[in-house]
Specification:
Elements lengths: L4 H9 L2 E6 L9 E5 L7 E5 L9 E5 L7 E9 L6 E11 L4 H4 E8 L10 E2 L2 E5 L2 E9 L6 E9 L5 E12 L6 E8 L8 H15 L6 E3 L13 H4 L6 H13 L2 E10 L2 E9 L5 E6 L5 H5 L10 E3 L4 E4 L8 H9 L4 E5 L5 H11 L2 E5 L5 E4 L5 E5 L4 E8 L5 E2 L3 E2 H8 L14
Parallel strand pairs: 13-14, 14-15, 19-20, 20-21
Antiparallel strand pairs: 1-12, 2-5, 3-4, 4-12, 5-11, 6-10, 6-12, 7-8, 7-11, 9-10, 13-24, 15-16, 16-17, 18-19, 21-22, 22-23, 25-26
Length: 433
């Protein structure tokens, strides 16, 4: 599956503009100020001196009130249930500590009777552009929608100010499905002569159990050590190296991305690493395991230092390895950067925590393990496919466009991004006062 640039262009050409405003002047038509009660109303005003490309913006100031919440809103008619819309806005902020939750752009769907038609949709993704930031997002109007409030707010930032400009709401065609065929292999080689033989058995399992057309093929953690009697440091190799060369041949012949866990040597340092090989057989990225258990540290491994995400031709993916599943930060860090699918080579680990990582971040989680099951899990924590037999593969086609809405909370993938609190200090572990 490949994301077609022409399809994106076609989508843009067929957009219907419902609202497009910038260079605001005093008393902007249709815009009103809003807060839940007078005691927490921020100061909302039109600033005729500041704007994204021309002077004039919708400004909100916290008014030295830590409880201040609210700002500007405008009702847009003609949006009906089932419509897809794209919402964009630019903002500039000063003295706002946590922009992800304190600066809010959202769509509040309304019925013909003036009641909320469904949970509001947030603009979660931000790009910096000099002093200004650009928010964007797409959403589908819930059933019974007859209009929508475009809302631009500031939350609980007593000394903060935000300026809003370039507000655009467009009706767009329903986005096409982004179907990705995923395959993950269940195999544990035993009594092999060394890394090459273990890797060869994984390649044979792919040939036997993975049908043509897979977009992603996942193998377990440590495919170069499993089945051997060797230590991590004995079998560690460079990247690129002999194992990535073998995996590259598989990726090219299958026209698929391949992910596997190996042990990487860089000088005197050895890492537990997951590699991502692209469809052309090139090393597209690697992740060095951040959370090392004591046992791996005592055997000479060094932890990684960051959580990278990788852009594929079907979307963003993140890599995790085994013990990472015991901690919330790895999956959260990847989801925060836009990863839609987490690919996790794993030896063994808690199944409940693995399920929690998928649910709490609203992402697909794919595992390939030895003592941990091999499966494909959706953002609700449901296993779509599981490989139970040695040498078999779990196969499923997932749609990365599909929205997973909770009955009472709405679409939690984007909502979580807008409500996650990273500004509240977390005490250093084990430090008593």
């Amino acid at each position: 599956m490949r994301l077609c640039a022409f399809a994106l262009l076609t989508l843009s050409l067929h957009a219907e503009v419902l609202l497009q405003e910038s260079a605001f002047r005093p008393h902007p038509f249709g815009w009103t100020t809003w807060s839940q009660r007078p005691e927490i109303k921020p100061r909302a005003f039109v600033d005729t001196n500041i704007g994204r490309s021309q002077p004039g913006s919708l400004a909100i100031n916290g008014a030295s009130n830590a409880a201040a919440y609210g700002g500007w809103r405008k009702q847009v008619q003609g949006v009906k249930g089932g419509d897809w819309v794209r919402f964009q806005a630019s903002y500039r902020a000063e003295s706002v500590a946590a922009e992800n939750w304190q600066i809010i752009a959202r769509l509040d769907w309304q019925t013909a009777e003036g009641k909320r038609a469904g949970e509001p949709a947030y603009l979660p993704w931000t790009r910096r552009a000099a002093e200004w930031s650009e928010l964007s997002g797409e959403a589908q109007a819930p059933a019974n929608t007859a209009s929508v409030f475009v809302e631009l707010f500031l939350a609980n930032a007593p000394q903060g100010t935000v300026w809003w400009d370039n507000v655009v709401l467009e009706r767009i065609p329903a986005p096409a499905a982004r179907n990705v065929k995923v395959a993950t292999v269940n195999l544990r080689p035993r009594n092999t002569a060394g890394p090459a033989e273990s890797v060869a058995q994984f390649i044979q399992a792919i040939e036997k159990s993975v049908p043509a057309g897979a977009d992603v093929i996942l193998l377990p953690e440590g495919i170069t050590v499993v089945g051997t009697t060797k230590s991590y440091t004995e079998i560690a190799e460079t990247i690129p190296g002999p194992t990535t060369k073998s995996l590259s041949e598989v990726a090219k012949s299958r026209n698929a991305y391949v992910v596997a866990g190996i042990y990487e040597r860089e000088g005197s340092t050895v890492y537990n690493t997951a590699v991502l090989i692209d469809r052309k057989g090139s090393v597209a990225g690697k992740y060095r395991k951040v959370y090392l258990p004591r046992e791996e540290v005592e055997r000479g491994l060094t932890p990684g230092t960051h959580f990278p995400v990788f852009q594929t031709d079907f979307g963003k993916v993140g890599l995790m390895i085994c013990y990472d599943i015991f901690f919330a930060e790895p999956a959260r860090a990847l989801a925060n950067q836009g990863a839609e699918m987490l690919l996790m080579p794993i030896w063994g680990g808690d199944e409940t925590l693995a399920k929690a990582r998928a649910i709490e971040n609203g992402v697909f989680l794919i595992t390939s393990g030895y003592d941990h099951p091999t499966y494909i899990m959706d953002p609700f924590g449901e296993r779509l496919s599981q490989a139970r037999e040695q040498g078999s593969a779990a196969i499923a086609t997932v749609d990365l466009t599909k929205r997973y809405n909770w009955q009472w909370l709405g679409e939690m993938r984007t909502r979580r991004l807008k409500e996650l609190r990273t500004d509240v200090p977390v005490p250093q572990p084990g430090l008593l006062h």
